[in-house]
Amino acid sequence: MKYYKHIITLIILLMTTTMIFSQIKPLDAVLSNYQYPYKVHFIDLQSQDNNLKMAYMDVHPQNSNGKTIMLLHGKNFNGAYWERTAKDLSDKGFRVIIPDQIGFGKSSKPHNYQFSFSQLAENTKAILDQLKIDKTIVLGHSMGGMVAVRFTLLYPERVQKLILENPIGLEDYKTFASYQTIDQAYQSELKNTANTYKNYQMKFYYDNKWKEEYQPWLDLIAGWTLHKDYPQVAWDAALTSDMIYNQPVCYEFKNIKVPTLLIIGTRDRTAIGKDRAPKELQPKMGQYQELGKKTQKEISGSKLVEIENVGHLPHIEVYSKFFDALYNFVK
C-alpha cells in the first residue's frame, strides 16, 4: 500500500511540475513580449564599437520628496522584480530609476563586449546624465550590489546613500574556486532549463520552499531557454559570470565613504563557482551570516540589518522586513 502511495505522490508532483513549466512562455533576447510594470524607456549607447540600447524605468511620485533612488538588479534578474519596491518608494515621494544593465532584461545583448563593473557603472551613469539627475540613493541586489559598489567608488559625488541587499562579491571567489573559461561557462549556460533554474533558486534563495509569488522571476529566465535567441543570452551570461569571478570588489569596501546600509538575509549561501571549489572549501563559501558582519566592519560607519532565516532575495521572500529596513535608512 505504501508503495502505491509513493507512486501516486510522485505522479502528482510530476503533473504539478509539468503544469507549472507548461505555463512558461518562450521569450526573445530583449523580452519584447514581456510587459514590465512601468513604462520602459531606452537610451542609445555607443560603447566598444557597438550601437546599444539600454532599458530603464523611471517612476515619478505624485508628491515628490525631492529624492531619487536607483535600483540595480542581480545577475539572474532584471528591473521588473523591483515592482513592489518601486511602488512603495514612489508612494513615499521618491523618484525611482530602474535600469536593465547591458546584457540583461530588455537591454541589448552584444556578442563582442568586454563586460566590467566599471563599464556597467559608466552605462548606468549615462542614464542619470540624460535625465539630469545629479545625486541619487543607490540600492543594489546580488550582482547589482557589485555594480553599486563600483558606481559609488567611481562617482562618489553622485551617491547620497548606498544600500546593498545580499550582494554577491563580499568575498573573492578566485580564492576558493578554480577558473573556468568563457567557452566553458557558455556551454554550462546552454544546459540551463526551467528545472535547473528552479533547483538553483530553491537551494540558494528559498530553502527548498517554493511559493507561487516566486514563479514570475523563474518564468523570466526560464522563458529565455525556450527561445531560439537563447544562445545570445547565454553568451552574455557567460561573459558576466567571468566578470564576477575576475573583478572582486571586496578589497575596496574600505574606500566607501558614503552612508551605507547592508540588508542581509542570513540563510543565503550564494557563491559564484562553488561547484568548482574543493569539497572541503565549499561549506566555507557564501556564509552571509558572517560576511555581512565582516563587510560592515570594513565600510566605515555602515549599518547592518540582518534578517534571520532568509535567503538571497529578502525583497521577494520577506518584503515587509526588507522595506522597513530600507525606508528607515532613506526617509
UniProtKB/TrEMBL annotation:
GO cellular component terms given for this protein: membrane
Keyword Hydrolase included in the entry's annotation: yes
Domain of life where this protein originates: Bacteria
Key words of the record: Hydrolase
AB hydrolase-1 domain residues: 68-271
Statement: the UniProt record of this protein carries the keyword Hydrolase: yes
UniProt GO molecular function: hydrolase activity
Pfam families, sorted: Abhydrolase_1 (PF00561)
Full protein name: Alpha/beta hydrolase
Source organism (scientific name): Chryseobacterium soli
